[in-house]
From TrEMBL:
<protein>
    <submittedName>
        <fullName>1-acylglycerol-3-phosphate O-acyltransferase</fullName>
    </submittedName>
</protein>
Length: 225
């Protein structure tokens, strides 16, 4: 089984499952990007925003490979405080799901900070995979007919990644595909609603865990898209 979260990991995970399907029994993608292109009708907002001076600056920074990680590295000793403010806001007062405990928040802040402040690696390929706005330069939707392993997509109800891209891909896939949406969860659904996410994962793996998978019902609270 394989699971993806970061955009660059999605493409590597898909590429591996496509080239070596004999090593992947079931592909699980969590909040994946890479299905929508700039040419899609729903991307008109990014075209309009890019026409503004703010949009032009941000687009230039993106095309110059200027990433948020560079900001954190450049802040030096002030970096942890900025990350702490973000994690406290995102997974605290403004969280749509579970609120982290003080200890959990501290551990998450340390993890996120050290991940961002580490030497640049995967982030350097982002501009080549995505255009500004997280629109794929080569949408995976176009390769959907070539997918070779059963796939489950998991999205939080409030994920900013559009689950409708997965719905469109499913129309062209020749292998089993299901889309599960988890309530009280955004892009970080595994943190926002861990119990709901775990239920979705177990359901996705039912053919490997249950003696009677065909009669397993979708756990309460989850929805199939």
């Amino acid at each position: 089984m394989a699971q993806s979260q970061k955009p660059q990991q999605l493409h590597f995970t898909w590429a591996f499952s496509w080239r070596h399907p004999e090593h992947v029994q079931h592909l699980i993608l969590v909040g994946p990007a890479g299905f929508s292109a700039q040419s899609d009708a729903k991307s008109e907002w990014i075209t309009k925003f890019r026409a503004t001076w703010k949009g032009a600056i941000l687009n230039h920074l993106w095309e110059s490979n200027f990433t948020p990680q560079k900001i954190i590295r450049g802040l030096g000793p002030w970096g942890p405080d900025l990350v702490r403010k973000y994690t406290n806001a995102r997974f605290g007062a403004y969280s749509s799901g579970s609120v982290l405990t003080t200890e959990e928040s501290s551990l998450l802040t340390d993890y996120v900070y050290h991940t961002l402040a580490a030497k640049a690696s995967g982030e350097l390929c982002l501009k080549y995979i995505f255009a500004f706005g997280a629109f794929a330069r080569m949408p995976l939707l176009h390769s959907a007919p070539e997918w070779k392993v059963p796939t489950t997509f998991i999205y939080g109800f409030e994920d900013w990644m559009n689950y409708q891209g997965a719905q469109e891909a499913r129309k062209h896939m020749k292998v089993p595909c299901e889309i599960i949406r988890v309530p009280q969860g955004g892009h970080f659904v595994f943190i926002d609603n861990p119990s709901g996410f775990h239920a979705a994962m177990f359901y996705a793996c039912r053919r490997f865990l249950s003696p009677d998978p065909d009669h397993e019902s979708l756990p309460e609270g989850l929805s199939s898209a």
